Structures are given as structure tokens and as C-alpha cells.
Amino acid sequence: MNTTTNITDADIWATLESVKDPEIPVLSVVDMGIITAVSHEGGDTATVTMTPTFVGCPAIHTMKKDIHDAVAAMGFSSVEVIVDMDTAWTSDRMKPEAKAKLEKFGIAPPPVSDGELTAEMLDRVRCPHCGSTDTTLRSTFGSTLCRAIRFCFSCKQGFEQFKPL
């Protein structure tokens, strides 16, 4: 008997909310906007399409496996996770709730850019520790490709910023 007959695409999306980004464990792959499509035709096969934040992201294989395992645990006998390198991921794909979670975690979230970044957006980064925008870029290279290192002159704390893309 097919145990996935009553599973909807919405159920798959809900399951993917539990799959965490391995580099930012407070965010799910859905929060990050990495998941671009889910489908199943009422059978035992599910397909999930993901767009990584960077083509060279070292977490792609881990995310792909975690996505596969979470959807397979729903009862699907076949799960295909497609990595879409043709669709460009941007930080505007992140949910507003994800940006709030980032800040609470101590990482300055990227600004909403609607595709156009200004010098002011890049310079006026709010410190996740004290809220000041009296900050400066210390290094464009953080602990991952998608982060930069900044310093806050108000609270004298260093912090990471998720780069706007």
C-alpha cells in the first residue's frame, strides 16, 4: 500500500522546515530560500529542487543528503534532490523571519536590496549586539563564503554579517 498517497506538497514544505542549514543551524533550508520547488504526483516519488547560496558552497552535499533523508522519512521510496545552478540565489530570497533569527544568533542579516545594492546599504550595517550602525568592514571573508567580518565602534564587538547578494 502506498503510504504517501495523502501527503501534499505543503506537507513536504513543512518537513523541509526541519532541515537546518549546516552552516547556520538556526535557519532551515526553507528560511534561507534555498528550496525553490517541491513536487510529487501522488506516487512514491518526491522531487525537491534547491538553489545553493553559492555555486561553490561546501554545504551543498550535506544539505542535499539532509533534504533527501527528511523527505524519504515521510515514506517516499524515491526522493530526487535537484541542485539548480541556473537559478541565481539572492539574499532577498530569505524570509524576514530568517533575518530576525540571524540577528538573534549574532549575525547581521543582509538588507533587503530588491536587486540593487547601494553604498549606504553596504556601509550602514547594524550591529546584532547593540543595534548601532557605527560599524566598519574588517574583512570581506568570514567563516563561510556568505559572511563578512565587521566591527562595531559602539560596543567594541566584532561580528559576522551575512553578505547581501
Helix and strand content put the structural class at alpha/beta
What is the CATH topology assignment of the largest domain?
GMP Synthetase, Chain A, domain 3
Element-level helix/strand string: HEEEEHEHEHEEE
Overall pLDDT confidence? 90
Query: In the CATH hierarchy, what is the superfamily of the largest domain?
Result: Fe-S cluster assembly (FSCA)
**Rg:** 18 Å
Helix segment count? 4
The CATH architecture of the largest domain can be named as: 2-Layer Sandwich
Note down, in words, how this protein is organized:
The termini are far apart. Strand 7 and strand 8 form a beta hairpin. The chain folds into 2 domains: 9-83, Fe-S cluster assembly (FSCA) (GMP Synthetase, Chain A, domain 3, 2-Layer Sandwich), CATH 3.30.300.130; 94-162, no CATH class. The mean pLDDT is 90. It is 22% helix and 26% strand. The strands form 3 sheets. The protein has a 4-stranded mixed sheet. The chain has a 3-stranded mixed sheet with strand order 3-4-5, covered by helices on one side. The protein contains 4 helices and 9 strands, in the order αββββαβαβαβββ. The chain has helices at 9-16, 60-72, 96-105, 119-123, and strands spanning 20-21, 24-28, 35-40, 45-50, 78-83, 107-108, 135-139, 147-152, 158-162. It has 165 residues and is of the alpha/beta class.
